[in-house]
Amino acid sequence: MTEDNKNMIEETVGSDARVDKTSDGDLVLPMIPLRGLTIFPNMVLHFDIGREKSINALEKAMIKNQYIFLVTQKDENTDLPTMEDFYHVGTIAKIKQMLKLPGDSIRVLVEGVNRGSITNMLMEVPYFKCAVKEIPDAEPQQISPKTEALMRSVLTLFDEYLALNQNMSPETFSTVATIDEPGRFADIVASHLEIKTDEKQQILECLDIMDRLNVLTQVLSREIEILNIEEDISSKIKSQMNQNQKEYYLREQMRAIQEELGVDEEIEDEIDEWEKQIKELCLPEKTEAVVEKEIKRMSKMQPSSSEASVSRTYIETILSLPWNKESEMELDLKKAEKILNEDHWGLEKVKERVLEYLAVIHLSQTMKGPILCLVGPPGTGKTSIVKSIARATGREYVRMSLGGVRDEAEIRGHRRTYIGAIPGRVINCIKEAGTKNPVFLFDEVDKLGADFRGDPASALLEVLDPEQNKNFTDHYLEVPFDLSKVMFITTANDASTIPGPLLDRMEVINVAGYTEEDKVQIATKYLIPKERAANGLRSKDIRFTQKTIRDLINYYTMESGVRNLEREIANLCRKVARKIVTEGEAKTYSIKPADLEGYLGKRRFRYDIIKGVKKIGVTTGLAWTIVGGVTLEIETVAVPGKGKLNLTGQLGDVMQESAQTGISYIRSIADELGIEKDFYEKYDMHLHIPEGATPKDGPSAGVTMCVAMISTLTGRPAKQDIAMTGEITLRGSVLPVGGIREKVLAAHRAGIKKVLLPVENEPDIDEIPEKVREQMTFVLISDVHEALKEVLDDKPVKKKGKK
User: Fold this and answer.
1) DSSP-derived secondary structure letter, 86
2) Which residues are designated catalytic?
């Protein structure tokens, strides 16, 4: 290295005003520990980083001055290195370029500048920052004969090393031979060697150029010796092929020749069969041209080649699709309605929408298939009703479960450039159906995932868009296929997790949970006969009383659907079947409520019947869960303190905010309610919702919590047999909430006769079953005062020692 070059480097790093320095003159630089990699001065190299500390250090260097200190880890398997885990001699490098890669990793291009040694570690979090002593090479003004001799020796050995190492490019030698600075020459040679990291580190730590050339000579000599030994071993292995191996290769060649002899006739027959299928299918013009071109390519290939196999599979896949085959539609509305009612109880909205679709088809003959989304709790018959829709409309039925699907290729397929490429599952399902107008179920659409392989939800946008799916193009087929006549139906438990653009393309039908009466009817008409037959029982072998079915529903299941109910009925049938076989006696087993504990064990759930008692600080609220509605008993108590609000019972953020809103509202109307103005300074308010192991959230308990706290502070008892729901504001207004049907059913089940609902939820009352509506009173409220009039007594009850 010339003196001018050296001065230039010192000016770039040591004299750069942007580089911070310690009081001792050392450079202050961010540091990255490298795994399995050693950077030398004058070396240009790119590498990838993904650890958080390394990314932080890189970003800091880019902001500051683009200089970074690179050291090598002693053990590349250490994920979180400390000072003891990396060498202290490394290379000061300049960042030339950085590129963000998928998966939060970054590719960096750096150029080594000078050696450096860590004198002090200044910071380890959020990235390594250290004080570095810069160690530039002291290149001699004139090369001595001894140095020249060492350089020639290293160059000769390096030439021999390149000749033996098949992984190295021959042009590397000509590049190295032009370097006349000893230090730079040694570093460039070392950077090209395929040796262990600790050996490269040994060369890097040789600060004296003569020592560095000597170490390099020893390393090259040893590597050449090892390469010569490897070449000898390889030659011996090749020469040791025995007669059996030779015979094996000869037999394989003979078999290939024999296959070649009859190949022309076989391929011609196959091509003739394909041409015949093309004429019968009447393919679209573009598709036919693509297939014809592929067949022409196939005819010129060796039949046993892998490329021919890929081409054959592609042609057969296209020709196996139902391009023009459709199921004949069943347009008899009465028959279709009868089939739907035979298979399912309730689900009136779904049945009505299907019958409307059939009616429009009957009149227009050209309507595109609708895209429905059935949203509701598990076990309510969403998936099974789709089978009934297929049977009622006379179509084929195919199902694709989307739960856990994270790869876009599952929908669109893989491109044929990939080994083992196949069409997407949409095209495969159409192929299995054998018609182009089946009922296609996308099950659990709300459980789609996304990762580095793409977003399946975005891929579904084209499939479920009536304006686009006429020309759906699978990546494997690379020709459009018409999906416009497919009746797509999706199911989900929670519409809020479905991406907005995807939800916008679907017609959402809410499938509500079943009432107790619904479940009794479903069990009697569908589940009991089904499980009796499945377990080999006759109708006279086992019988259920209606009270037994109700106890099964109330005390052994807690769900909006009937999946667990069916499971418990099956359990009873199996136990009776065992008794019949064991006792060998043909008699009728009538299952009564008192028998359930003996068959199924202790009751697993309880439904408290709320009686008309009055308690201070205790109110009855209503909540919606994934398994239906439930009643909530909200308890409050005021104790001497400093105004702290304690919330217990695993309340979520929204519910906690509702409680805080209630306290602020109470403070604003304390005079009006006859509450001490400074109650929030003298008392701590504790609000608790029992069943603390169950997480609870949402704004709908706002009015209930507010009334409970007012009851405690005023001493006015609250009526337990009145339930309420609604969100409150700081002005005391009661806002509408969701899940009214399920909440009211829960109140009815608990024996509550009066329910307070927000005024704006009045339309939701029509969704409640008529039998329930007739037995209950609904009071519509617009603010908290109206709730207080209904729930609290007019006069407070004073009790000693309680507030």
Assistant:
1) B
2) 700, 743
